[in-house]
Amino acid sequence: MAAVQVAKKELRRKIQNLLKDVPRESVNAQSTVVANKLFTLPEYLNARRISIFLSMPTGEISTTGIVRDALSKGKEVFIPYTHKLETTGNPSQPKVSVMDMLRLESMEEFESLQPDNWGIPSLDKQSIPNRQNCLGGTGVLEERPRGNPDDLGLDLIVMPGMAFDTDFQRLGHGKGYYDYFLNNYSKEIAGSPRASQRPYLGKLNCPSKLSLHCILC
């Protein structure tokens, strides 16, 4: 296991060096190609509730066009919100960073989001307790009140990745946010009407100057 983690770390370093050389013009052009492809897919066209990652300033395709299109079509859009989670009752234990998917209400709200430490547009912390969670209720997972069971789950998850292999296995940024989210997603929908309706995973990355992948699996 340790050897695998070392190999992943080295691969991330190599890919980051490659991504630094991709011109902004190329990223913008590839972002448009991927978004236009996504817009033609029935998995997107038929989706009512969609999770979409918001892009870092560099090294990733821009999902701005996807967010705008989804909102303009009346889809319910959920975006990542990362926060600290206490894993034990001991305050001396370090907190871990985790991720929930919370509702983005409008185009105006999207345009007003402020960047976090990564430069990623982020939801206002003060709005979190009253914001719809994709897994039902409002607020973050461990504190939220339960809501209508019909307001649970997603039809499509658009997620980032640094690289993918030929079997579509994903190499993320190493923080484990999507591992945490997808694991909780599976637990939360177990026994619900959504349990038999797994969401499609749209995996987007910008691996080189030449290509950009949009994979549904």
UniProtKB/TrEMBL annotation:
Catalytic activity: (6S)-5-formyl-5,6,7,8-tetrahydrofolate + ATP = (6R)-5,10-methenyltetrahydrofolate + ADP + phosphate
Entry protein name: 5-formyltetrahydrofolate cyclo-ligase
Ligand binding (ATP): K8, K9, E10, L11, R12, R170, L171, G172, H173, G174, K175, G176, Y177, Y178
Protein family (similarity comment): Belongs to the 5-formyltetrahydrofolate cyclo-ligase family.
Lineage of the organism: Eukaryota, Fungi, Dikarya, Ascomycota, Pezizomycotina
Keyword Membrane tagged: no
Biological process (GO), any one: tetrahydrofolate interconversion
Annotated keywords: ATP-binding, Ligase, Nucleotide-binding
Origin species: Talaromyces marneffei (strain ATCC 18224 / CBS 334.59 / QM 7333)
EC number: 6.3.3.2
Matching PANTHER family: 5-FORMYLTETRAHYDROFOLATE CYCLO-LIGASE, ATPASE INHIBITOR/5-FORMYLTETRAHYDROFOLATE CYCLO-LIGASE
Keyword Nucleotide-binding: yes
Single GO MF annotation: ATP binding
Source species, domain of life: Eukaryota
Residues that coordinate or bind substrate: L54, E60
One GO CC term on file: mitochondrion
